[in-house]
Amino acid sequence: YGVILLDLLYHNDCPATTKEKLLEQALSIHHLPKDLDIIIEYELLKAFKKIEDFTLPLDSNRHWRQLMALGAKYGEHYALTYTKGILCYGIAHYAKHQDSEILPKALNFFEETLQKSHSKYYSHNARNYQEQIKDRYIYSHIIQEDYMPSARLMLPISYKNIDTLYVTIIKTKTFRRASYKYYKDNSLRTDNLTGKGCKQLRRQSFDLSHSTPNTYHTTDLFLDSLPTGNYVLLFHTEPEWDTSNVMMTKSIKVTHVHLSINSLRYNRAVFTATDRQTGEPLRHKWLNLDHNLDVYTTDKHGQVQVKRYMAYWSLPPIDFYYNK
After folding, report:
1. Which pTM was predicted?
2. For residue 251, which of 276, 234, 226 has the smallest C-alpha distance?
3. How far apart (Å, rounded) are the C-alpha atoms in residues 190 and 202?
4. Could you read off the pLDDT of 34-51 as tens digits, one per residue?
5. In the beta sheet, which residues pair with residue 274?
6. Cα 116 from chain centre
7. Separation of alpha carbons 119 and 83, rounded Å
8. What three-state secondary structure class fits 73?
């Protein structure tokens, strides 16, 4: 009964309420031996009914204190060690720069789990988490999509296990969102960046080898200034990029024009276009928003009203021109 019960508990489709009832039933049968695995699973299920915010550090995290108390009561059971690893991994993942020691700590907990566990479920998951911790990672905090000409571009990133990062700059005829196009095997689709209208300008490299392995880091990358136009930035780990080593892309626009939202309605949006250098509104200029075929003209206040904005109700990807 205990073996069948534990197999059911480790099945992802089994609801937590069902697991709790089964565990209570198992513990209430007096003639069955009180298996420590079942007792620990029941304690963990009660303790983790409501997951606390992973941004809390270990010293003030309620779940960490509960795990330490269970360890003092029952000993360092492999399920407790594994759960400690999960908690450390979650805190490191959601608060990547706050504690440089917590991800290696999670790695050690998963290694201890592999040494102590006789459960295929825990061993399999511990190996998967170890691979994720040792894997390379990069994430961009870039929100800005439009930049000033003749000014360096600052790109804040988080990364892990990367010694050298290369950034290839490709100039495109129109604003292209390449970030979300992937093949079925999860390799990045970049075929639309090598054809007509695309030109590779240059590549910059950044040495990140000083970083501690298996730990999240944050830094700012600075790219040399670019002339006016549309660009796609490819972040890759080998000198020459291809679909296997491009880890991230970012589409940007370098322009003197700044677009801000005045009002948003269900079927109408009003934007104001200003010159980024002078701050003055661009009066009576032609605008082409979001590579639409329609050309709009700003009024005497630099405002333009778009009756139908089909992409989404926010600032459009800035792909427009104006007559000087």
Report:
1. 0.70
2. 234
3. 17
4. 566 767 776 776 666 666
5. 258, 281
6. 32
7. 14
8. helix
